[in-house]
Amino acid sequence: MSEITVYDYENPVYRVLLENKLFMGIGLEAFMFIAVITIVLMTVVSLYSVIAGVVLVIVAKLVCRKDPMMLRILFDRLLTPDLWRAD
Question: In 3-state terms, what secondary structure has residue 27?
Answer without folding.
Answer: strand
